[in-house]
Amino acid sequence: MRRSRSEQTGLSYLSTGSEDAPLVVCLHGFPDIPRTWAPLTERLCEAGYRIASPWLPGYAPSSLDGPFDIPTLTRTILSFIDELSPSDPVRIVGHDWGSIITQCALAQRPDRFRAAAILALPHILAFETNIERYPRQLQRSAYMGLFQIPIVSDRIVKARDFRFVERLWKKWSPGFDPGADYFEELKLCLRSSMPAPLKHYRAVASFKVTREMRETVTAGPIVVPTMYLHGERDGCIFPGMADDQEEHFSAMFEVVKLADAGHFLHLERPAEVNAAILRWFEAHR
Question: Which architecture does CATH list for 2-283?
Fold first, then answer.
């Protein structure tokens, strides 16, 4: 595993695999780090892929300079992909915030991708529609409202050595513990990054930013073959929020649900998740 930095985009990233192998870009979510992709990286590398997993903008050691709105994050990731694979289309995996960025990248530059896998956060438009069906999601998303309040939320998140973050993990993935060393690495990243990770959420409050994002995803269905994976015990995103999202994908689209997994399903059930993603990518060579 190599740690590198893209001076063009300001992203630091972990990479493994042969430089001439097909590239897979893996994007983490909140609150998380590239280590989240270690099991998938090992499996894909064994299958002959090259994997690059960046710290998202706002997560040290990547750049902490904003802005952190979704259109800007998407452009940064697309530039990162162009830098690492100037000519060949790549495969991409996105979890949580990484899923949102992936969706926008697929919609904006479908020519840059062969296939995609998104986890735990469905198509943006399906999420908006299903809020009416499953209003309980508003309660689950209450933390997003908290993060809109500068200073106050910064202090709450950092208090007692990021106890708030540990509680989110326990709530979102019931019964799962990634281990003390994992949390220590995550907390080290957050200590060096705050409050930038919360600014991702604050940028969503901008009408201009939201309009630009919606214009991207409403331009037409995603034409890149995409797999969606969701844990049915997800305590962050109610599984029903993914209902009927297939109408937003015009290429091959597959849903994989794991009954005994929560929000961090790729860490909870790595064998099943990794096998499904590898099968999908191999089917779209």
Answer: 3-Layer(aba) Sandwich (3.40)
How wide is the angle at C-alpha 22 spanned by C-alphas 21 and 23, nearest 5°? 110
Residue with structure tokens 């060949």?
Answer: 88
Domain positions in the chain are 2-283
- 163 Cβ neighbours under 8 A, 6+ residues apart: none
Q: Which amino acid is at 190?
A: L
- For residue 14, the SS3 value is strand
Residue 224 contacts residue 116 (beta carbons within 8 Å): yes
- Per-residue pLDDT of 65-74, as tens digits, reads 989 999 999 9
- Give residues with Cβ within 8 angstroms of 243, minimum separation 6: 126, 130, 133
Q: Specify the 3-state DSSP secondary structure of 121.
A: coil
Under 8 Å between Cβ of 123 and 248: yes
pLDDT tens-digit map of 207-250? 676 677 667 666 779 999 999 999 999 999 999 999 999 999 99
Question: Rounded to two decimals, what is the model's pTM?
Answer: 0.96
Q: Which helix (H) or strand (E) holds 161?
A: helix 152-172
